Amino acid sequence: MSAQPLGVGLVGAGAYGVFCLAAFAEAEEIRIAAVCDTNAERAETAARAYNVPAYTRYEDMLADASVQIVALNTPPFLHAAQGIQALEAGKHLFCEKPLALSLAEGAALQAAAQRAGCKLTIDYVMRHNPLWKAAAALRSSGLLGRLLHMDLANHAAGLSLPADHWFWDHTMSGGIWIEHGVHFFDAFAWVAGTNGEIVCAQAFTNTRGQEDRVEALARYGDAAAHFYHGFTHSGHTEQTTVQLTFEQGHVTLREWVPVTMEIASVTRTQIDAIRPLLPGEPLISGMDGGLFRLKVRLGEEKSGVYRACIQSGIRDLARAIQHPEHALCVTVEQGLSSLSMAIEAQ
To answer: What does pTM read for this prediction?
Structure first.
């Protein structure tokens, strides 16, 4: 007999919170139990769509016995205090990234989870993306030789954020590295198979004096890494590219939530060995410029893949709650390691 679905209470019913609710609603392991937001209209509108209670006071939602998991979608500066409140109330925690703004806060969350005997995970969607999983498997397989270099060029849609949005306030967001960069610090650690360290970093400001571009060099064991984030584009011109360079080939992931992967290798034998590591039906385009090329595209567009990754995260947490032997896909330790790199870069 299958376990009963676990009740999820979402805190923070903004646009992204509503997007998460749509993902949660498709996961049979959980059920939406409540919505909380300080804005009563937002809370009631979101709750009405799922016929669940709406709360404007966080403490009231924590007192709701039907809520077993808190999905925390509030700005980063609230994660530590609200997360600890949830854990002390006996709720499991699905925390939006970053885990916290400081290592001390992150450690306090970790300690609270241990005291309460509750599960805590972070919404690192890259860990649930089939193409990032394939990239990690490819490095681990050694089919292209050693991993030499990783590069991220993330030209994000910062122009869609109002000038007074909390994202631009370091006291609320932690800045680009902490609010956003942790995703890629963690994803690169997954691919490389080891934690990273920052070598140097720089930042740039826009005409309003807001930090809108950051860049860093890092190393992950024997592999060099470069990160660039620029919140300077619109939704029409945003572009994200990850390039992984191996001794005997290259791997390219495209879009912030990648939907395509391209692999270039020196031999057809390597390509044939790589194909089972990839999702879907990869296509070989034949010899091009001295390299064989393999391309895979996920079946959905970016928003669909993004929703599926969020859903995979909440399902993973539900499995860990219902089956204690199940190891979480995203651990607190991984959250702390990527947060440490972000603080170094900042």
So the answer is: 0.96
